[in-house]
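Sequence in, structure out. First:
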Amino acid sequence: MDHPGVTVWPAAPLRDRVVLVTGGAQGIGRGIAEAILGAGGKVLIGDLDVEAGEACQQTWNDPAMARFQRLDIRDESSVEGFVAAGLQYFGQVDGLVNNAGVAQAHQVPVTALDWSQWNQGLASLHGAFLCCKHALPLLARGSRQASIVNIASTRAWQSEAHSEAYAAAKGGLVALSHALAVSEGPAVRVNSISPGWIATEAWQAPSRRQPPELSAADHAQHPVGRVGYPPDIAQLAVYLLSSMSGFVTGQDFVVDGGMSKVMHYL
């Protein structure tokens, strides 16, 4: 095999690619959707929050590149309709980002947790399963290698008290990712991202948008010197969705500014 020489990096790594993003109207999901657009891709965002979704559409103002559809990841018919809409709007589906889920990590002690609360805490895992189930036939039929990115959390690897359901869901997303990578390769690559502390206040619906209230001590907990923001996750998502990561599958990427590597003493 001859040495290929210098390879020019693509200026728009997601050009001509269509990506579905759940929970894509706010927070990390919105950051990922905007990064996809910035990388030349097309995006369909799904979200329960219609205000946030319509605000995204109004801001982006390019229906040929970006659309919104209300999505409840707990409802299989809603998921099926969301995936079908991606095909209807754009004619193909090349990527899926499973980001939607319950934002609140803390619940009551596990001895007081009822079955419905437990299942609510697992919404991100159950929703990712449903989205993969319905998107995979479209992802696998393309001529190019497709990609799934599951947004997990550092809670998959470390915990606070009374966050069992949330931790189980995020740990499950990491495991689901490497299992699917084995099952669906080589046609589809599957990876997960485990974000740490990400300040999302400025990426909310207009009525809830505000500057993050962060102290010097908050930033100082991170070896990089600051708390994270949605673009910190989004840039890695673009890489994992693009052909630049063609030899990467079944992996979890912790993106937390090094916070989980700091020793803490009581």
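Second:
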Amino acid sequence: MSRISPVEIAGPLGTLRGWLHRPAADGPAPAVVMLHGFTGQHVEQDRLFVQAARVLAGLGFAVLRVDFYGSGDSDGDFEQFSIQTELDDAVGLLDWIAAQPGIDPARIGVLGLSLGGCVAALLAGQDPRVKALVLWNAVSLPATHFGEIPLEGPDAYVIGGQRVSAAFLDAFYQLDVTGRLRDYPGPALIVRGTTDDVVPEPEAHALKAALGDRGNLLLIEGAGHTFQHPAWREMLFRHTADWLRTHLGAGS
């Protein structure tokens, strides 16, 4: 049986909190770092990340799922976050997991959902420690997001019940996600739910085009943004696990 323990990690701006799942077997294990979406957290909607981490740990992976700064149980307030703070957090998570006993630092993958997928793509484009990349309904074309949002004060907007800084939006709209992803030399699995109403379909195809032959695009028919049906999740976890075992290996 896999083992799970709470973790507190010193991030660039404050303490990041979450959980580490370890496989039952001892010895150097491949690791997967999971990055949650906008207004999300290390559990994700309907326990998506919990379920996925358990499946992967059961197959021999160590899995780290942690709240970004300003989200969930981590330090900070939501309006303090930006893509850059999340990217800096993600680098810190790689630093931490690579230094843990029982982890093979040469076999680290990153899995991102939605805006976490955007961060994962940016991370892969700059950090050679990312050996495998998984993108679930990932944001890749910033200009298609948020649209008309209410202004609250001179420097803040409200999105999803949270205040978001104008600086976040300004920087977000300037991102070239696919351009950065082209710098990533490794393999990637892109998964899109065909009825996702949060991230439009062209974003998955933009990711595939940026990766070329290094990208594998999987469509899950009927699935929404967080794959909210047991059958969709079964397919999602099975394909993700098989793909990660192919590219990172695992003990069982």
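Remark: Residues 16 and 190 are 27 Å apart (CA to CA).
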